[in-house]
């Protein structure tokens, strides 16, 4: 009965978001309260339970997401993202132009939110397409595949960060494993798949090119400084995760544990970027802080949605429904990674939001970790891969792609939807391959 109640609550959550168009944060809170009520939690403690879950979730990821957003904003406004893009494109030239766009998308996509990276890089795709007289979709898919993979697989993006927190994964290892899986995934789903899209043309000469990039008009950072500043969180998280595994020096291990806390690394990265991309580029501290204020305002809703998912998770734990789920799932003859992927994929198709799909799935799967000895880092990536499945008309990114590239609905399905589905399927395949290698 408890599983039926939970299933009904998740279905109601999907209806609220997809059909009734209720804000996901409000939908999560309503669902958490209803789930607690029907699962028999004392009504006098129900509100405190939801608040506890929300607070614990926000306490673990708010600093990381906020600092990461600020770094991404400064990377754009300082011109660093533009410098990275132009430099990589200069290296690859016309012959390997799609490879250059793919690499650019991956580098820029790590510190930037998907929508920000999309709006920043689409004018670059159009410019290159005009210069080389090539199809915009043919050129754009490799770059957008990179952005999508970074959004679904790699910290410090909100979904991987929240999944890592819920499933008690090591963020550094999630990042390392995610990059290992991401490289072959974007090569196949982006570079190779786009070879089939050469003949997709825009419906008219109309193009959305009036996207203004607000960039510092003064001194621009060099390529090496731009790359170092944008990717410092990646380098630091990777280093502090790997060093304790290869060194037995107790002092070094303790330093890595302290400095390697994701919130600490993101704060250090933010301070470094404030100097390298702000003060050193002759920008006033007030101007940099104004950028940060805009970035924090933009990410506030995402942080609240993640917190709402934490409230639902706490209700499940306190009610004991998680134990019932474990007893049921362990009887199903399907690998937990594949089960996680399938659940996330189904919810993604229903809801449209990759972040919401990942959070709903992780809350349900948490108990499996205590009974099956799964690698939580690979479970995060399994859920992340499933959450990217089959983007269609209920996903805002689907419409962004269609309208910016000005193609028909049919061609949008043939290109964008198929690419996202390929990323999802390849992601879970490479999770199993990596699992067989490291375990």
TrEMBL record:
Keywords: Membrane, Transmembrane, Transmembrane helix. Signal peptide: none annotated. InterPro entries: Glcn_transporter. It holds the Pfam family GntP_permease. The keyword tRNA-binding does not apply. The chain crosses the membrane at residues 27-46, 58-76, 96-125, 137-154, 174-193, 225-247, 259-278, 299-318, 338-366, 378-401, 421-438. The keyword RNA-binding does not apply. NCBIfam families: gntP. This is Gluconate:H+ symporter.
């Amino acid at each position: 009965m408890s599983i039926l109640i939970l299933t009904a609550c998740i279905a109601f959550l999907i209806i609220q978001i997809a059909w009734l168009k209720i804000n996901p944060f409000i939908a999560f809170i309503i669902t958490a309260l209803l789930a607690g009520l029907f699962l028999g939690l004392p009504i006098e403690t129900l509100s405190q339970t939801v608040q506890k879950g929300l607070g614990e979730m926000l306490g673990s990821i708010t600093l990381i997401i906020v600092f990461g957003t600020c770094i991404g904003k400064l990377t754009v406004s300082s011109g660093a993202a533009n410098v990275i893009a132009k430099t990589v494109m200069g290296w690859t030239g016309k012959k390997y132009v799609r490879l250059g766009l793919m690499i650019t998308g991956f580098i820029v996509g790590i510190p930037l939110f998907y929508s920000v990276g999309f709006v920043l890089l689409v004018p670059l795709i159009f410019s290159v397409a005009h210069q080389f007289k090539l199809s915009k979709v043919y050129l754009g898919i490799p770059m957008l595949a990179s952005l999508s993979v970074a959004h679904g697989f790699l910290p410090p993006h909100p979904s991987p960060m929240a999944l890592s927190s819920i499933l008690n994964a090591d963020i550094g290892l999630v990042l390392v494993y995610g990059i290992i899986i991401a490289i072959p995934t974007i090569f196949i789903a982006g570079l190779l798949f786009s070879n089939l899209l050469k003949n997709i043309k825009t419906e008219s000469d109309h193009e959305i090119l009036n996207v203004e990039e607000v960039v510092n008009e003064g001194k621009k950072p060099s390529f090496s400084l731009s790359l170092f500043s944008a990717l410092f969180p990646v380098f630091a998280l990777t280093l502090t995760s790997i060093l304790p595994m290869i060194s037995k020096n107790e002092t070094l291990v303790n330093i890595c544990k302290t400095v390697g806390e994701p919130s600490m690394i993101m704060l250090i990265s933010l301070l470094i970027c404030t100097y390298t991309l702000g003060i050193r580029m002759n920008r006033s501290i007030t101007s940099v802080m104004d950028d940060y204020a805009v970035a924090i305002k933009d990410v506030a809703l995402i942080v609240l949605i993640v917190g709402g998912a934490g409230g639902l998770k706490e209700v499940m734990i306190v009610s004991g429904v998680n134990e019932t789920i474990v007893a049921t799932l362990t009887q199903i003859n399907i690998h937990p990674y594949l089960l996680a992927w399938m659940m996330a994929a189904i919810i993604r198709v229903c809801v449209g939001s990759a972040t919401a799909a990942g959070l709903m799935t992780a809350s349900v799967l948490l108990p499996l970790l205590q009974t099956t000895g799964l690698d939580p880092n690979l479970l995060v990536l399994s859920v992340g891969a499933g959450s990217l499945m089959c983007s269609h008309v209920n996903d805002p990114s689907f419409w962004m792609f269609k309208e910016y590239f000005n193609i028909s609905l049919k061609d949008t399905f043939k290109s964008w939807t198929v690419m996202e589905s390929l990323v999802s399927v390849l992601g879970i395949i490479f999770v199993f391959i990596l699992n067989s290698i490291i375990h």
